[in-house]
Amino acid sequence: MSQGSVPPQPVVPLATDRDRVASPAPELSSGQRERLADILAGPTVSLHDHPVRLPDPLNERSWIRFADSGQVFLGETGLSTVFASKLAGGTLDEAVAFGTAVTAQQNSGAATSDTTVLGALEDLGPIGTELRGLDALYGAGIRCAGLAYNTGTALAGGLGQDPDPGLSPVGRGAVRAMEELGMLVDLAHVGDRSSIEAARLATRPLVISHAGARTVWPTPRMKPDEVLRAVASTGGLIGIEAAPGSTRSRASSGDHDLDDVMHHLEYCAELIGIEHVALGPDTFFGDHLGLYAAAGWPRPSASGMPALDIEFVAGMENPAEAIPNAAAWLIAHGWADADIAAIVGGNAARLWEGVR
């Protein structure tokens, strides 16, 4: 931003960075709080978030006006690195514009001045079958992308497809091209067969940027043990997510809370090792589920599972509070500081350093 220039103003009021809703942190002793501060002074990385400020109030009118403006306003996460993801779908031009806007905000110093913000995509549907689109995305600052969203792409099957057709020849080419560019291959919304095929093909670590364990919560959105092991075999990571209704637990009372999210983390750490676990909260600054209503999208659901009856996961409602509160939970539950530091950022920082 040039000296004396006036930063752009949003076309509608936006949600605040913090304290939008009451969301208490785990209680810690003074000594535990000191430990938490030391851990958070090291790398803190979100593998998947939407650290943008949504309209507030969020309704059909405010969302249409804001979406049509093409504006992107990042909130302050307090993290050292965050992979900031665009919503699924859209055109290549829109994906490039998103990456460019995120990079511009980063470079301007107008927001997240102490955070490295890296562009990400939920899926590579915008490139179709044209792999040259990956070069355009990388040039715009996109550093992580899913091969497919729930309904699949020309590259791979999505988790909502039955049967999953597996990686296409173009999909195999995409994995190789992304590895050459230094772009993380994400399997968060990819089907099980396609995920395992991608892991067999990969020569660099893969990520599941935001999901959980299907053993803990048996829905297609979660990942079965064989997929978790396949990603770990590449040296990759699973980022545990906290979008409302996602990482619930059969052991819970029915609500989706911080304990549920951490049940997924504990299970994955036991199954594949702490070194393969990270965090990808998948949160916004604003009303996550309200966005579905405002945009006219169906709420996430899964056959045979309880109806989605909460608006946010208390303690993991936004990108600024999720990772610190996860660290606090782990301290309160007796985890060692070195292991907590690895999960909240060390693992992801090491992986990213080796990929880029």
SSE order and pairing:
Blueprint: H1 30-40, E1 45-53, H2 60-69, E2 81-86, H3 92-108, E3 116-121, H4 132-139, E4 142-146, H5 169-181, E5 184-186, H6 192-201, E6 207-211, H7 225-233, E7 237-240, H8 258-272, E8 277-279, E9 284-285, H9 288-295, H10 322-332, H11 337-355
Parallel strand pairs: 1-2, 1-9, 2-3, 3-4, 4-5, 6-7, 7-8
Helix pairs in contact: 1-10, 1-11, 2-9, 3-4, 6-7, 10-11
Could you describe the 3D structure shown?
It is a single chain. The protein is α/β, with parallel strands linked by helices. The protein has a single domain, classed as TIM Barrel. 37% of the residues lie in helices and 12% in strands. The protein has helices spanning 30-40, 60-69, 92-108, 132-139, 169-181, 192-201, 225-233, 258-272, 288-295, 322-332, 337-355; strands at residues 45-53, 81-86, 116-121, 142-146, 184-186, 207-211, 237-240, 277-279, 284-285. Helix 8 links the parallel strand 7 (237-240) and strand 8 (277-279). Helix 2 packs across helix 9 (288-295). The relative contact order is 0.16.
Considering the chains and any ligands shown, give keywords for the structure.
9 strands, 356 residues, 11 helices, three-stranded parallel beta sheet, globular, TIM Barrel, alpha/beta, six-stranded parallel beta sheet
E-strand count: 9
Strand order of the largest sheet: 5-4-3-2-1-9
Radius of gyration: 19 Å
Beta-strand residue fraction:
5-15%
**CATH homologous superfamily designation:** Metal-dependent hydrolases
The total of helices stands at: 11
**Residue ranges: pLDDT <50 for 5 or more in a row?**
none
> Which CATH top level class fits?
Alpha Beta
Give the number of domains: 1
Largest sheet: 6 strands, parallel
Query: What is the overall silhouette?
Result: globular
Mean pLDDT across every amino acid position: 92
Computed structural class: alpha/beta
User: Could you give the order of the helices and strands?
Assistant: HEHEHEHEHEHEHEHEEHHH
Distance between the terminal alpha carbons, to the nearest Å? 27 Å
What share of residues is helical? 25-40%
CATH fold type: TIM Barrel
CATH architecture: Alpha-Beta Barrel
